[in-house]
Amino acid sequence: MFSKSCEYGLRAVIFIAQQSHLGHKASLTSISQAVDSPPAFTAKILQQLVKNNLIDSSKGPKGGFFMAPEAMKNLTLEAVVSVLDGDSIYTNCGLGLKQCNDKKPCPLHFKFVAIKEELQAMLQNTTLIMLVNEMNLDRFHLKR
Amino acid sequence: MFSKSCEYGLRAVIFIAQQSHLGHKASLTSISQAVDSPPAFTAKILQQLVKNNLIDSSKGPKGGFFMAPEAMKNLTLEAVVSVLDGDSIYTNCGLGLKQCNDKKPCPLHFKFVAIKEELQAMLQNTTLIMLVNEMNLDRFHLKR
DNA sequence: TCAATAAAGGACAATTTTATCCTATATTAA
DNA sequence: TTAATATAGGATAAAATTGTCCTTTATTGA
């Protein structure tokens, strides 16, 4: 469904949000341990998110990745997916055709559209702060 | 969403069903032209489908791939996806965790379950004969 | 029976995705 | 100001997926 990069990115962002909510910055090391992802690879992914202003970072001792409280309210999963995987999940044809749309559809086009719209809506309607609040119920995990 | 193999396989199967409905066998050449897929690669995919008895084939001149009318009524897209991609689309965690289930869920588990079940239901409820009949309205295409 | 046609399948090649390594640069605290 | 810590980013490497090539085997029709 998502690329590995996107999976790691989503897990990392959720962890960073958790930590930011507690007033902590998250170092690369702590992130890749918490979400069980390869550190160097995770670094690249986080760099992309920083460059696109989805999250913040600071260098040096006591540095790390973090999010401002406001950012957490506004940042959706959809934004993360969009940066890391583009919008191909929503727009690409389920059968892999390059030209597939309402005018010139593949046989499954309309069936897929419904499902993809639901996925997109779910990602758009889920903000990081929502997840952080739900996670306080802590039945949830991000690792393995 | 699906692997390339699965995309080609689905397109090929739909074309074979169309042709079988018209009483024709579909040669590898005709299939890969009709659905715009690499012939040798498509051959491998079709071999898998034959081996799993989703479609039939015959060798020699006038040979090719085909489906019995009954098979067409029973064969679902889900069966094709299952052979080519396994059930990972339905069962895998959206965040890539190996252990993610109702008991020990990732933060997005329940949101994803709903969407994946819908996808699975759609594939299970769509038989090849249904597609062939709809395709007679011929606004639909399988190529490019 | 022979030639042509077509699928079966093993070996291998290219491409894309995933992942690592290493150096540079910035920042903090002592 | 220096040592330690941490992100940034280029160059490579490994693994998985996608795709090709070539030989074998089966079947049909003349």
Chain-wise SSE layout:
The structure is a homodimer of 144-residue chains.
Chain A: H1 4-21, H2 28-34, H3 39-51, E1 56-58, E2 64-66, H4 69-74, H5 77-85, H6 88-91, H7 109-125, H8 128-135
Antiparallel strand pairs in A: 1-2
The structure holds a DNA duplex (30 and 30 nucleotides).
GO molecular function, one term (chains A, B): DNA-binding transcription factor activity
InterPro entries (chains A, B): Tscrpt_reg_Rrf2, WH-like_DNA-bd_sf, WH_DNA-bd_sf
Organism (chains A, B): Gelidibacter salicanalis
Q: How is this structure best described in words?
A:
The structure is a homodimer of 144-residue chains. The first copy, chain A, has 144 residues and is mainly alpha-helical. Chain A has one domain (4-135): Arc Repressor Mutant, subunit A. The first copy, chain A, is 57% helix and 4% strand. In chain A, helix 1 (4-21) packs across helix 3 (39-51) and helix 1 packs across helix 8. The longest helix of chain A is centred in the first third of the chain and has 18 residues, at 4-21. The mean pLDDT of chain A is 96. At the A-B interface, helix 1, helix 7 and helix 8 of A face helix 1, helix 7 and helix 8 of B. Chain A binds a DNA duplex (30 and 30 nucleotides) through helix 3.
In the CATH hierarchy, the third-tier topology of chain A is known as Arc Repressor Mutant, subunit A
Q: How far apart are the termini of chain A?
A: 18 Å
Rg value of chain A? 17 Å
Give the assembly state of these chains.
homodimer
Q: Give me the strand/helix succession of chain A.
A: HHHEEHHHHH
| Helix-residue proportion of chain A | 55-70%
CATH superfamily of chain A: Winged helix-like DNA-binding domain superfamily/Winged helix DNA-binding domain
Greatest interface: A-B, 38 and 39 residues
Number of strands of chain A: 2
Count of helical stretches of chain A: 8
Shape of chain A: elongated
| Overall residue-averaged pLDDT value of chain A | 96
**CATH class category of chain A:** Mainly Alpha
